[in-house]
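Record type: monomer structure entry
Structure origin: computed from sequence
Chain ID: A
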Amino acid sequence: MYHIAVCDDNQEEAHLIGRMTQEIMAQREIEAQVDLFFDPESLLDKLQQTQIQYDLFLLDILMEERNGIQLAQALRQRGYQGKLIYITVSRDYAIDGYKVKADDYLLKPVEKDTLDQAIGRVLPRLEIVLLETTGDMKILQLQQILYVESTGHYVLIQLGDKGEPLCLRATLLQVQQKLGAEKFVRCHKGYLVNLAQVQEVRVSTSQILLHGGDAIPLGRQYRYEVQKAVVQYVEQAISSY
């Protein structure tokens, strides 16, 4: 099931967008839960109080107290990496939207077909993987994973919610093959990093900074390949934006 959050301080607009989104997902035969929020704080409170991970955020920008850009910044800082579509009356925040990794930017009044196309562009990027942990099976979205750390005969998969990491009996190579070597790159003899989570590569301090504030080590012998992979990832993301 996909979890989608709609946040708009105009309740009529929020209900309209929520209803169209439900219809779009039903037409695509995709099970989805669409939650409505009428101010940014209620969305942030919901995330803090529950373990829910939203796959997609549909946000207005011009809201009181905290606008949609500030809301997205708060979400990213807390490690939430769901896809993001802005639906707003103003064109003025398009560049700011890119800075918080927005996937699309729609102008109100938005037609259902336009919203359908935007959601369709996002859905293929919501990739999932099935992992067998110690005693359990977990279905994860790749975007939830920050990095993978090797420890003895096990690996620890750290997720964006900053909770307890998932523990698998496997090697880093096995996990890399499972997740995809084009998305998860060896950055240290004991670490894989999700390229989608990289904010900065600091060669001077041998660190990789991630969205959300985590820092993981960068091994000297992996520097070139990591930098090359990050450049390729960014170029591909820009070309498809």
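Annotation 1: The longest strand covers residues 145-151.
Annotation 2: The chain has seven helices and 15 strands.
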